[in-house]
Design brief:
alpha/beta; five-stranded mixed sheet; 20% strand; D-Maltodextrin-Binding Protein, domain 2
Length: 255
């Protein structure tokens, strides 16, 4: 059978979802190569023909702009889950003090809240949205600033902040294992700057369809992880120490 290259964005939950797709392809006899890269680079790799299956694009808001330049070269399958972006605070930050994004500018909150809003790499939808929110909500005038970073740094920042009982706001998304680990509380975004609910859509190059074959393609199309399923996979990777493929095997064994 043909060798198929599966690409995923370099974040743990993307690795988890891509591992399920990889196992489906392997069950149909394919040898699978994997490639991962930051958001924009991953889409460039597929556009240049180096990635057959991109798992997955968050459409339309988070990644639509990256796919637009080569949309006519690919086929979109049914979404595997329905992600969305949020801003959140630790559960010990009182809701009557901070219930929505605008509350971050309240004088009593400004004096307690860490003004550094840490995020992941700048190509992520949540990073683009967050940088805009700091300005559009006027938070920059109160000393807040968004700082993109790495996934590891982002996770460590949350873990340390919680351990120190620090007041902080974190740009987050579902699905992501930190949602389950710490019970982070979502803030309302009345301006709607965090985008809508996306569809996490596998993207297949048209020139790879014949090599993949209709049976494997139909099985990938039928995968329905849901946000809860991806978060479960992500917990197994980040909390239980499983590899993405081990997590995928555990998940598929239960189905």
């Amino acid at each position: 059978m043909a060798v198929i290259t599966v690409g995923n964005i370099a974040l743990s939950f993307h690795r988890a979802a891509a591992a399920v797709t990889r196992r489906v392809l392997e069950r149909h006899g394919h040898e699978v190569r994997t490639v991962e890269a930051p958001h924009e680079e991953m889409f460039r790799l597929q556009a240049d023909g180096h990635v057959d299956v991109l798992n997955s694009a968050w459409l339309p808001d988070s990644h639509g702009r990256y796919l637009a330049d080569y949309r006519d070269q690919v086929r979109l399958l049914d979404p595997h889950y329905t992600p969305f972006c949020v801003w959140a605070v630790p559960p010990y930050v009182p809701e009557d003090a901070v219930a929505e994004v605008a509350d971050l500018s309240r004088p009593d909150v400004v004096t307690r809240m860490n003004p550094v809003i840490d995020g992941i790499n700048p190509g992520a939808g949540i990073s683009r949205f967050s940088a805009r929110m700091v300005v559009d909500y006027g938070l920059d005038s109160h000393g807040y600033g968004f700082v993109p970073g790495t996934e590891d740094g982002f996770i460590k920042r949350v873990e340390q902040g919680i351990a120190d009982r620090e007041w902080f706001v974190i740009p987050l998304w579902r699905p992501q294992f930190l949602n389950r680990r710490h019970g982070l509380r979502v803030l309302a975004d009345p301006k709607g700057l965090l985008g809508s609910i996306d569809a996490a859509t596998p993207v297949i190059r048209l020139d790879a369809l014949d090599r993949i074959g209709p049976e494997a393609l139909a099985e990938i199309d039928a995968v329905d992880l849901g946000n809860d399923g991806v978060e479960e996979l992500d917990v197994w990777i980040n909390a239980d120490g499983l590899t993405p493929l081990q997590a995928a095997d555990r998940y598929l064994a239960r189905r």
